[in-house]
Design goal:
The protein is α+β, with helices and mostly antiparallel strands. The protein is built from seven helices and ten strands. The chain has a five-stranded mixed β-sheet with strand order 3-2-1-5-8. Strands 4-10-9-6-7 form a five-stranded mixed β-sheet. The protein is elongated, with a radius of gyration of 30 Å. Bound molecules: copper (II) ion (CU). Copper (II) ion (CU) binds next to loops. The site of copper (II) ion has 7 residues, from loops.
């Protein structure tokens, strides 16, 4: 049975009788809730929320300004989602307890309550608009390309390794001045300087791969054909060795497709590039600038390819 809105039920009368006091109490509770929320927010901003909650599942310690902005967006979105979630849980449990069944009377019906319906509609739109606004700002910043980046490197992916070409300009018309090629025995090392803007121009020789250095908090697909996926970081902030991986399942040895990003000082980078231009190998050039010539963060994988397991004849063949 559905109650018509014109019906006045005993429970409704009881509620209406105390409506003035109830509304005041409701307003008081709402104010208390708002104050509590503000206090919680104040407390949370007092400490490093990201660190306390381990980045809410995102890697911490990004090494570019872009990664810091993406990280902050992630943390803020998580806090917003948690705030909404906790508020909804509170409302659910409050309704369950406050309006649990007390008799056989149908409770007061609140259909066509315009303020409530308006709130249902406007609150999600507001939340989504705020999230969209900040996402658009960060995304635009991350995708921004400058006219004249300090360093341009061409990332060439192939099954199943990487080649890094240091370029003298942007686009396909530029020339490669030095190159590093990965093999099954030696992990390719991409040497880049701190404090300079770097453009990555990606292209693939065969299938779709994905260029991923976890510390950039960023990955971008490497596409075959004429598509050149380009992105930039405005600087690399800390020297060190960072593992890089292919993040797109690209075939049998996809998991072996690792490389290393080695971030060095601008002076060392210039010396490295000069040595490479002089015809030195990447390992010799790294040794010349006092760096470990081999990858520190990953090692070549054992492909376990032998004459016994390489394309073995199917069982029973030849009998
Ligand atoms: Cu791949």
């Amino acid at each position: 049975m559905v109650a018509r809105s014109s019906e006045v039920r005993p429970s409704a009368v009881r509620h209406n009788a105390g409506a003035g006091g109830g509304r005041r109490r409701g307003a008081g509770r709402l104010a208390g809730l708002g104050l509590g929320g503000a206090a919680l927010l104040f407390l949370l901003t007092g400490c490093d929320v990201g660190k306390t909650f381990h980045g809410f599942g995102w890697p911490q310690g990004g090494i570019t300004p872009q990664s810091h902005r993406m990280y902050d967006l992630w943390i803020a979105s998580c806090i917003a989602a948690l705030a909404v979630g906790v508020f909804v849980w509170f409302l659910i449990f409050w309704c369950v307890i406050r309006y649990r069944k007390r008799g056989n009377d149908l409770p007061v019906q609140t259909r066509y309550n315009m303020p409530m319906e308006f709130l249902y509609t406007i609150a999600p739109i507001l939340v989504v608009s705020v999230l969209f606004y900040y996402t658009a700002i960060v995304q635009t910043d991350v995708n921004k390309l400058s006219k004249n980046p300090d360093v341009t490197v061409e990332v060439v992916a192939f099954k199943w390794n990487w080649q890094f070409n240091y370029r003298d300009g942007q686009g396909t018309d530029a020339n490669t001045v030095a190159s590093t090629l990965g093999t099954s025995e030696v992990i390719p090392i991409l040497v880049l300087p701190t404090g300079r803007s770097i453009r990555f121009e990606e292209t693939s020789r065969d299938v779709i791969h994905s260029f991923w250095v976890p510390e950039l908090l960023f990955k971008r697909d490497v596409m075959p054909g004429k598509i050149r996926n380009v992105f930039e970081v405005s600087s690399l902030d800390s020297e060190g060795a960072y593992v890089g991986r292919c993040a797109e399942l690209c075939g049998t040895y996809h998991a072996f497709m690792n490389f290393e990003l080695r971030v060095v000082s601008p002076e060392k980078y210039d010396q490295f590039l000069a040595a490479k231009r002089d015809g030195k190998t990447t390992q010799e050039a790294l040794s010349a600038i006092g760096e470990d010539p081999y990858a520190q963060t990953t090692k070549p994988f054992e492909t376990r390819r032998t004459e016994h397991n390489f394309n073995p004849a199917p069982a029973g063949a030849g009998r």
